[in-house]
């Protein structure tokens, strides 16, 4: 808002002029043409008080409610962003194609024709603690990887909601009215 100054003409007429009119020629209410002084000279003139006292409009400051909204939003934004990065750095995805392939010649070979060494090797393999997972193609591991994928997608959706909520809270802090200073 431009400041208004009280200009007294040589005839004694008092006119309100704004800083934007500095150096212009204006016509007074009495109908006379007058040149408004430059901005430097205007600043030496008395200011016109706005209607309604010394301060026409009260200034606003940041309220406690606005601070709470802003800080809460900022914490949501930072917290969900960091937790998303942490999740992706701490739980790397594993390839699902890690099943042990049984050679085709073993599948097609008749067991009755196996040598004693082949039978001992198979017995050693079949009695190992991890044999069932290897024969299933590591199906348990595949289920775990798929569960991890689903968990990460769900967490990503919650993270996006949390970041959005944080941004909304921060925006609401600016939209709420502040405290008045009179």
Structure description:
The chain has helices spanning 39-42, 64-90, 104-108, 116-126, 131-135, 139-175; strands at 4-8, 14-18, 25-27, 33-35, 59-61, 179-181. The model has no long low-confidence stretch (mean pLDDT 77). The strands form three sheets. The protein has a two-stranded antiparallel ribbon. Strands 3-4 form a two-stranded antiparallel ribbon. The chain has a two-stranded antiparallel sheet with strand order 5-6. The protein is built from six helices and six strands. The chain starts with a strand and ends with a strand. The chain is an alpha+beta fold and 182 residues long. Strand 1 (4-8) and strand 2 form a beta hairpin. The protein has two domains: 4-49, no CATH class; 61-181.
Q: Can you lay out the helices and strands and say which pair or pack?
A:
Elements: E1 4-8, E2 14-18, E3 25-27, E4 33-35, H1 39-42, E5 59-61, H2 64-90, H3 104-108, H4 116-126, H5 131-135, H6 139-175, E6 179-181
Antiparallel strand pairs: 1-2, 3-4, 5-6
Helix pairs in contact: 2-6
Feature tags:
single chain; 182 residues; alpha+beta; two-stranded antiparallel ribbon; two-stranded antiparallel sheet; 6 helices; 49% helix; rod-shaped
